[in-house]
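Re: that backbone. Tokens:
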């Protein structure tokens, strides 16, 4: 039969140490096993040590100035190496006069390190020249600053309040012109806003056909329509809408009836349904004389 009491060797010893960790020790162990703690220990602590070391070193004005000077010397040595130096300027696509103006506008002092060149600023400076339409700037092998340009092509002479200007097909000013006779092959346009309608003006001039030898130019009226100016002081007043077709009708009428060979001062086509012809002053005076004679005979 088993005894009811526990043997003395199996009874718990009150003085024996409990192997279970304390709550604080357990939390510290969990923290050491967390990814954040490992990351901070592996990366954060070295960064703090490095930052403290650098901060302590840079706290001295003398050491800080020496470091900046060393960096500046190394940079200057790299930038001024021969392979990075620009020694010449090449301009392609420009006439000699425009090329000279471009060189003066860029005002480059060569040789110069390519690191010191602001290519976009140089391009914007070049585009300030009215004669240039497009500009591309880059540094090519051999230390050459290459500038490729395309010039605006003048298609007409525009007479405005400031004088004569050469304009391209878009109405942009190419350059001033001293005299009309210096550009005999270019058509003449005049009036405020004429440069904004160069394309239409060229179409009207092309439609003049047989009247081209007599054509002296076009005058923009009211920023909306054109007058065709011929020799002998004659004018053809074109409508605001479809001016090319109106001029073609006037040319056809002149070919059929020689209207413009007579003493006519103005052919008014502004109203498509009605053609108005204004006689010249000598013809008008003669008409009034004839009318006076006819009326006098009638009264007699």
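Recovered sequence:
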């Amino acid at each position: 039969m088993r005894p009811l009491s526990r043997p003395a060797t199996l009874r718990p010893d009150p003085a024996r140490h409990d192997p279970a960790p304390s709550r604080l020790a357990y939390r510290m162990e969990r923290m050491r096993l967390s990814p954040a703690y490992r990351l901070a220990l592996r990366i954060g602590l070295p960064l703090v040590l490095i930052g403290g070391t650098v901060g302590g070193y840079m706290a001295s004005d003398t050491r800080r100035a020496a470091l900046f000077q060393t960096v500046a010397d190394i940079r200057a040595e790299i930038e001024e190496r021969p392979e990075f130096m620009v020694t010449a300027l090449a301009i392609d696509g420009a006439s000699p006069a425009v090329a000279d103006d471009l060189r003066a506008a860029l005002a480059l002092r060569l040789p110069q390190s390519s690191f010191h060149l602001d290519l976009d600023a140089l391009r914007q400076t070049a585009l300030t020249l009215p004669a240039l339409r497009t500009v591309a700037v880059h540094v090519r092998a051999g230390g050459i600053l290459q500038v490729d340009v395309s010039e605006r092509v003048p298609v007409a002479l525009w007479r405005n309040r400031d004088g004569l200007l050469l304009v391209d097909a878009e109405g942009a000013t190419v350059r001033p012109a001293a005299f009309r006779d210096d550009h005999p092959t270019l058509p003449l346009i005049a009036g405020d806003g004429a440069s904004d309608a160069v394309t239409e003006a060229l179409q009207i001039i092309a439609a003049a056909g047989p009247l081209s030898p007599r054509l002296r130019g076009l005058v923009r009226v009211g920023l909306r329509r054109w007058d065709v100016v011929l020799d002998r002081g004659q004018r053809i007043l074109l409508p605001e809408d479809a001016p090319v077709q109106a001029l073609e009708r006037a040319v056809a009428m002149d070919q059929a009836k020689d209207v413009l060979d007579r003493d006519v001062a103005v052919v008014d086509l502004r109203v498509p349904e009605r053609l108005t012809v204004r006689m010249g002053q000598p013809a008008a005076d003669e008409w009034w004389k004839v009318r006076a004679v006819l009326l006098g005979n009638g009264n007699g």
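The mean pLDDT is 83. The radius of gyration is 46 Å.
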